[in-house]
Amino acid sequence: MKKYSFTSESVTEGHPDKICDQVSDAILDALLTVDPESRVACETMTTTGLVMVVGEITTKAYVDIPRIVRETIEKIGYTDPDFGLDARSCAVITSIHEQSENIALGVNETEKHEQGAGDQGLMFGYACDETPELMPLPISMANKLTMRLAEVRKKGILNWVRPDGKSQVTVEYEDDHPKRITNVVVAVHHNPEIAHEKIVADIKNHVILPVCQGYLTPETKFYINATGIFAIGGPEADSGVTGRKIICDTYGGMGRHGGGAFSGKDPSKVDRSASYMARYIAKNIVAAGLARRCEVQLAYSIGVADPISVYINTSGTGKQPEERLAEAVRAIFPLKPAAIIKYLCLKRPIYLKTAAYGHFGREDEEFSWEKTDKVTELKQYFGVK
Hints:
By secondary structure, this protein is an alpha+beta fold.
């Protein structure tokens, strides 16, 4: 029997890097609402009392960026100067210019040129049969823990919780099947007056047990605010930058990552749109029963519509040769940037919701790449029922 452990982490919406992801995607959504053809590459940085927004934006829309920044920070929960960042009083600095004309030449569709990829790069998608949403169990549990941390704070269940926080979950596998959770790590930003013993008890009873109960054992170890105090958090403790939580955003390290971040980028950037398509492909292959695990890689050249390569890896779980699966992907799924955008309806203002708690494994209507509506077509291609 093969036995091993795998660990994934997640962060709350109040983590400094996630503040930046949400600000960038809130700006993107506001622009797409007015002008769906907006070209956006919006980066955010935050530190104590300061948010800076920079990037390249070409659009017919006008949006009030400082207002969007403040509204986003307020919704996250930074409404008190004691937190190190306050939506009403923080400084907001912007430095925005238009998309490079050189890039636009290859991306914009004309009579003589179909829409090409917005950059070169490689994008991965992954799916497995470990959870109903076809995600790896470690990242699924880690994301649910941080979502629960936000829920107990916003609903007033634990009124001492502040916006910043992290989780980490270790799952033990036997023959590639998840069996039990061996370790749970939670770091929660808190009111300085609260006793450590109460933090440990409250987090265990109100956060960990409701989320992880089915996989916990008497041997499971809990590490809750392991330094003993986390009263200084958010941007006051650590500066934040857009795109620094790409493993939390995806598969928790279980599937590979091409390196390109998602937030703040309009769907002409294949970093985002092709990664969503790769997840859609992998999920449909697993949902069709053609593999227990599936990793998809798509690779593009800037200005070229067709992917320059399509790669499938089923880690030995496939019921069809990987070369045949790659042929099926090219035959069944839209892979050109314009076709991906149209098929997944990616010009909608849907991105703020993706910017915390993972871009994948979410069943919300906006997450069109999570549908499994290609299962029948895949089965027919291979002549299986």
